[in-house]
Design goal:
It is a single chain. The protein has helices spanning 17-22, 39-44, 92-104, 134-154; strands spanning 13-15, 23-33, 48-49, 54-58, 61-65, 68-69, 86-89, 108-116, 122-131. The protein is of the alpha+beta class. It has a single domain (13-154), classed as Beta Barrel (Small Protein B, Chain: A), CATH 2.40.280. The strands form 2 sheets. A 7-stranded antiparallel β-sheet has the order 1-8-9-2-7-5-4. Strand 8 and strand 9 form a beta hairpin. Its main location: cytoplasm. It is found in: Cytoplasm.
Amino acid sequence: MAEKDKRFSNNINIKNKSASYEFEFLEKFVAGIVLSGTEIKSIREGKVNLQDAYCVFQESELWITNLHISPYKSGTHYNHEAKRIRKLLLKRKELQKLKKKMEEKGLAIVPVRMFISERGFAKLEIALAKGKKLHDKRQSIKDKDVKRELDRMKY
């Protein structure tokens, strides 16, 4: 029996580090994502970029745009498009809650991290977020510096 291919991993945890710098998270949700073809193989190889991705509502469905999943290198002509719009799967009540909050306030839905669930499905953690002002960004930089100094003192 052949050994399991070592390029693929179920321990995927891809984070959007710039999102926590740019936004203040108000509430987080875990959503499934509709994938096609070889996208799951590229995700298991860790070839995903969440930096420029954001979520939008089209009618009553939530979609993620600008999520870059690199084409699978061993794929054939059935390989997927890297930056296509993908549908997110949430419960109806969660969708209604998100849509209501987005309409009444100037909030955004931002992807925070992508991971593989215990059952082997790709999941996306999204957050209802409010944009930070310049002074808020300075405060988060200051907090990071203080934390770094405290960690250095411990060792």
